[in-house]
L-ascorbate metabolism protein UlaG (Beta-lactamase superfamily)
Amino acid sequence: MKDFDIHFKWVGAPTWVIQIDNLKIACDPVLCPINTVQDHKYFRAKRRSEPHYGGKDFEDIDFWLLTHRHEDHIDSYGVVQINPHTKVYAHKNLKSWLRLIYHRNTEYMKWGAKATFVKEDVKVTIEAIPCVHASNFLASKLAGGVNGYWLDIEKPASSLSVYVTGDTVNHSKVKRSLEGRTVDILIPNVGGGGLDRFGGPYTFTAETLMDITELINPKRILPVHHKSFSLYKEPISKLYALKDERVLKFNEGDSVSV
């Protein structure tokens, strides 16, 4: 795609690694084993499947994107996979996870803030995008803050854009931040998290995701954040049934070329 060599691996839940030429990016390390029960204060969630990662998956990461502090996005098994010398871009509510070891290399980003990462001839502009993590005001307040991330990746004569949605619904606040943009690669958190609970869904369903795709017209869609936990209620078959050729099909542990 656009003169870039791109490989994507879905580890499970919201955790993934993408290699774009010689740039390696990872997101939200939650690596607890199958059958782990997480206490989310107002409810519990059980891991349905093992995370799929090997010894080299988290080696030589150039930077991590951390969206928020919920335990189905970062846990004690996952945080230790972040090398203390690796750059981290995070929501401010992750300070309790990161401040003792990772504080020197972590940049806490507010919505709309931008940062720049440079490696050799590749420049990445990282922008924190608003997220609304529930379908009503009270539930979104209880859920707390979340960042999505928009990446503009440039090298001589070529460019590439990636939108990492984080946990969000298709709220007007999110859509306003995306107006006038188009994206090459969309990595959405789907699965209809909390679809059966107060304020749900907390993440995209197949239907609400299509509302966002109409706005930003992605060339490729790499859906994650489904199946792995009992909290994720909508099967990925709902998205596949829409027969959108931009949606790549893969399972936990799969690596795909984009």
